[in-house]
């Protein structure tokens, strides 16, 4: 994904050696046509699976997850991060820390939206420590559904999330891997 | 939008005379192809405007706003609801109450994403009291951009948000209007 690397080089802001802001093209504004290209990439990389649902966690992964689900012709589920007025007994809930927000949140998926026959593709914009991903994977397991893989737009490869998922035997497809953000400079790895 | 009314009749859960849950087709899971139909509706209803950006507020409006932006061929901006690690001086912020969440949140848009030449279409899944919409409209005004209209999937017409926007001279296009939720029953208005 050369275009994605170019956008990161030209538009992303490196805040520290841990944090990169990609507001103009990923986390706050997106070009829908470009998101469709990313969705086609994910659909192609997981095409041997019989995916029945795409799942993401609100909110900045929703655009690319929607694009992927549109290409695959399957529903998109977005896990919620807060309690709503619905009774908890209808929800599968996992508590996870959030690296970027510096707080703990509950992520939740309604029981009626995942079943034992579901083959689920997890899509997200960024993976860092993978805490939210781990929580979501527990929810998928608790529902009895099958996780067929994880498609990530930008993997911060210097943090442990991607490696953890791969070591767990999950097929992880990252469109771009960032090896380091040292000295305000983005270094990619292949 | 007969299909939308059917989905509401068959799948929505009326929690009280104020609250309806549309998790299976709007707020937690979506059918991407159906969202594209809604996006085409909005694109068609605002086609006389030269829209340069679609804007929504995270997170459950993102799918239909993305679909609309994809049809229109313009960027999608999603306003954020929480402080991130980026400095506030780069952000236009408005504090708004949230009816469904029972709390106050800050909504924010990066200054670099809205300019005086922008013709902005606001898209959201639901309008109730319109507090978030009012906050977002203030942000659009502060950026010097022009709001060309508001496209809403489900308007809770027994609450004041839609009427407020129309009285402010804004073109509001709601695909479905709910007149009342009394006695657990959804009544539509035309």
Automatic annotation (TrEMBL), chains A, B:
Its EC number is 2.4.2.22. Pathway: Purine metabolism; XMP biosynthesis via salvage pathway; XMP from xanthine: step 1/1. Xanthine binds at residues 27, 156. Pfam families: Pribosyltran. The keyword Transmembrane applies. It catalyses: XMP + diphosphate = xanthine + 5-phospho-alpha-D-ribose 1-diphosphate. The chain crosses the membrane at residues 61-79. It is found in: Cytoplasm. It is an enzyme of class 2 (transferase). Its main location: cytoplasm. Residues 32-157 form the Phosphoribosyltransferase domain. SUPFAM superfamilies: PRTase-like. 5-phospho-alpha-D-ribose 1-diphosphate binds at residues 128-132. Keywords: Cytoplasm, Glycosyltransferase, Membrane, Purine salvage, Transferase, Transmembrane, Transmembrane helix. Homodimer. Converts the preformed base xanthine, a product of nucleic acid breakdown, to xanthosine 5'-monophosphate (XMP), so it can be reused for RNA or DNA synthesis. Belongs to the purine/pyrimidine phosphoribosyltransferase family. Xpt subfamily. This is Xanthine phosphoribosyltransferase. The gene is xpt.
């Amino acid at each position: 994904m050369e275009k994605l690397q170019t956008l990161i080089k030209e538009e992303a802001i490196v805040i520290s050696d841990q944090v990169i802001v990609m507001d103009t093209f990923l986390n706050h504004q997106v070009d829908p046509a470009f998101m469709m290209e990313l969705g086609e990439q994910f659909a192609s990389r997981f095409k041997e699976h019989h995916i029945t649902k795409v799942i993401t966690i609100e909110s900045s992964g929703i655009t690319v997850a929607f694009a992927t689900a549109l290409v695959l012709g399957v529903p998109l589920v977005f896990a919620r991060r807060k309690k709503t007025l619905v009774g908890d007994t209808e929800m599968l809930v996992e508590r996870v820390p959030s690296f970027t927000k510096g707080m703990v949140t509950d992520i939740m998926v309604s029981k009626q939206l995942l079943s034992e026959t579901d083959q689920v593709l997890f899509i997200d914009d960024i993976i860092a420590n993978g805490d939210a991903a781990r929580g979501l994977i527990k929810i998928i397991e608790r529902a009895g559904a099958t996780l067929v893989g994880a498609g990530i737009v930008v993997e911060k490869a210097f943090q442990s999330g991607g490696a953890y998922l791969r070591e767990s035997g999950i097929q992880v497809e990252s469109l771009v891997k960032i090896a380091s953000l040292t000295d305000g400079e983005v270094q990619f790895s292949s």
